[in-house]
Amino acid sequence: MSPRLLRHVFNLWPPFLFSGIHVTRLEADWRGAEVELRLRPWNRNYVGTHFGGSLFAMTDPFWMILVMRSLGPDYLVWDRAAEIEFVKPGRGTVRCRFQLEEALLADLREAAAGGGRVLRWLDCPVLDAEGELVARVRKQLYVRLKPRARP
């Protein structure tokens, strides 16, 4: 599936659509993505700010997908763990940007070359319209070279 088509699929996917999550960019080379969460009457929490589950959901699949597609079919890539720290109430539209650097991919390839598992934490700050931090999200990825792809 192309990044363009996947972006449209995400934007129509009920868990994102009904949560107010919108994928605004998914780069053609799978090296970056941008996601926003719009505050709507149906996705506010009791005190009128962003529901914490939606803040987490907006970040959920992107590191795994970007790394998986960038490394290619010879690698297994899974989410292994996640953390979220709520820093301030989210109001209005909040955004998260994912940018995958070649240095990280090279490090993952080198670390996985022997066939063992590689665990890496990747961060994604969730920012409000003023650029202030709303939440810190960390995802731990599991990466391993598939057995048939080992030298």
Descriptive overview:
The protein is α+β, with helices and mostly antiparallel strands and 151 residues long. The chain has a single domain, classed as Hotdog Thioesterase (Thiol Ester Dehydrase, Chain A, Roll), CATH 3.10.129.10. It is built from five helices and six strands, in the order ααββααββαββ. The chain has helices at 3-12, 14-17, 52-57, 62-71, 102-112, and strands at 21-26, 32-37, 75-86, 94-99, 118-127, 133-145. A three-stranded antiparallel β-sheet has the order 1-2-4. It has a three-stranded antiparallel β-sheet with strand order 3-6-5. The chain is globular, with a radius of gyration of 16 Å. It starts with a helix and ends in a 6-residue tail after the last strand.
